[in-house]
Amino acid sequence: MKKFALVLLMSLASLPLWAQSNAASGTVDLEAEKRRLSSEREAMEKRFLEERTACYKKFAVEDCLSESRTRRRVESDSIKRQETAINDIQRQRSGAAELQKLDQKAATPREQDTREKQEQSIQNQKDREQRAADHAASRASTAASDAERERAFQSKQQAHADEQAKTAQQRTEAPANVQRFQDKQKRAAEHKASVERQNASRDKPRGAPLPAPPPPPGTPAPASAAP
After folding, report:
1. How far apart are CA 189 and CA 21, in angstroms?
2. What Rg, from alpha-carbon coordinates, does the chain have?
């Protein structure tokens, strides 16, 4: 806004004194000023043509024409400066109005914008909570996996220790086991030999029967069987 005021003051310097006051207060009718300058330009051109015609009737034609052209140039430059100043003021007014609209829009957010921002804020909060929950679940899952791996490792270590203890016990008990096996084999062999002896004794053939004793004296001899 300060820049606009500075440009406006610089532009006002090109306007007539009576218009500077109105332009400074913002009440000047710029379109009316344009029409006024257009009328002045037409009047200037008409006057220049009349002066030119009059110059050709004078003795010092060139001097007369030179003076007329000089007046025309001065008046034309003045009109151009005023037109430029008016155009600058119009552009600055338009820019200031647009800036004011933007300022008002920024200072007074629309209800729709406010509602959308509230909804976006709620959604952002939900997203943050969801990310936090996902992160917590991930940490819990990682902890559970670590615990499971630790249990598996401990179980494997215990199984290995048990296997080593079993192997050591087997090495310690090996001599006694060998002795028991040998004793068992010996008893089995002795039992087998005993059974074989018993079987051999039962299968041995019996001897011929002993003769009958002689009868006592005086006992008649048995009669022979008839042929």
Report:
1. 146
2. 71
pTM across the whole model: 0.36
pLDDT 10s digits, 122-175? 999 889 888 888 888 888 888 888 888 888 888 888 888 888 888 888 888 788
Q: How far apart are CA 65 and CA 48, in angstroms?
A: 9
Tokens of 105: 């829009």
Joined together, the tokens standing for residue 22 give 């109105």
Comparison of pLDDT for 115 and 18, the residue scoring more: 115
| DSSP type of residue 214 | P
Enclosing H/E stretch for 67: helix 61-107
Distance of CA 118 to the CA centre of its chain: 23
79 in Cβ contact with 40 (< 8 Å): yes
Question: Residue 87 and residue 85: Cα distance in Å, rounded?
Answer: 5
Contact 99, 5 (CB under 8 A): no
- CA terminus-to-terminus distance, the chain: 180
DSSP class of residue 62?
Answer: H
Give dist(CA 176, CA 26) in Å, integer.
Answer: 124
Helix, strand, coil percentages in the chain from 3-state DSSP, rounded to 5: 80, 0, 20
Residue type, 162: D
So what's the pLDDT on residue 110? 62
DSSP secondary structure of 161-193: HHHHHHHHHHHHHHHHHHHHHHHHHHHHHHHHH
